[in-house]
Specification:
The complex is a heterodimer. Chain A is built from no helices and eleven strands. Chain A has strands spanning 4-7, 10-14, 19-25, 32-37, 43-49, 55-58, 61-65, 71-76, 85-92, 99-101, 105-110. By secondary structure, chain B is mostly beta strands. The N and C termini of chain B lie far apart (36 Å).
Chain lengths: 111, 118
């Protein structure tokens, strides 16, 4: 079935370093959403990308949607301790408007 | 708005007991989703409702699970009888309209119910 693969599973960075997580779908998506889940918390909606090749920024976060609408990335510049958590992508399946979730990338800041 | 409200926050129960999880979606949201999250399987969609009607329950693990939405402001997820493998965090989420198209609000999740079956 349709899947959204997200890598890496974990990323350890020093505070101030950059962080990137990637999502790849086996089929074309209608759109893709990104969520952040803090440790012990619940997923919180960050953004939605709809257009082919779309790029959106939220302060230090940059979100991209591929030209073929099959892949997406989230890049965080100069990570801070407040960025700690798991970042999920979720692609919208065209056939039934269900979100297909990636497995998440856990951002860990090294002490 | 207080957001999506779930209760209880934590539930510890013995195997074989009935468990009922509750959810109050955001007023005006016409979609309600029940998810389960575990380390092994990540986020799994169990069932979702549109205007109080169950649309897709293909994610419900087995007959021990049932969900209802008697009105626009309340939904329950029931497990009877519960088993240790049901231990997980159960999230309720609501959404305004279909996620695609012009909607830009995404899903709003509740704080979840951490269920432990011993």
């Amino acid at each position: 079935g349709q899947q959204v693969m997200q890598i890496p599973q974990y990323q350890h960075v020093q505070e101030g370093e950059d962080f990137t997580t990637y999502c790849n779908s086996s089929t074309t998506l209608s759109n893709i959403q990104w969520y952040k889940q803090r440790p012990g918390g619940h997923p919180v909606f960050l953004i939605q990308l709809v257009k082919s090749g779309e790029v959106k920024k939220q302060k230090r976060l940059t979100f991209q949607f591929g030209e073929a609408k099959k892949n997406s990335s989230l890049h965080i510049t100069a990570t801070q301790t407040t960025d700690v958590g798991t970042y999920f992508c979720a692609g919208l399946r065209r056939s039934n408007y269900q979100l297909i979730w990636g497995a998440g990338t856990k951002l860990i800041i090294k002490p | 708005d207080a957001g999506v409200i779930q209760s209880p926050r934590h539930e510890v129960t013995e195997m074989g007991q009935e468990v009922t999880l509750r959810c109050k979606p955001i007023s005006g949201h016409d979609y309600l989703f029940w998810y389960r999250q575990t380390m092994m399987r990540g986020l799994e969609l169990l069932i979702y409702f549109n205007n109080n009607v169950p649309i897709d329950d293909s994610g419900m693990p087995e007959d021990r699970f049932s969900a209802k939405m008697p009105n626009a402001s309340f939904s329950t997820l029931k497990i009877q009888p519960s088993e240790p493998r049901d231990s997980a965090v159960y999230f309720c989420a609501s959404s305004l309209g279909l996620v695609g198209g012009a909607s830009t609000y995404g899903y709003t999740f509740g704080s979840g119910t951490r269920l432990t079956v011993v």
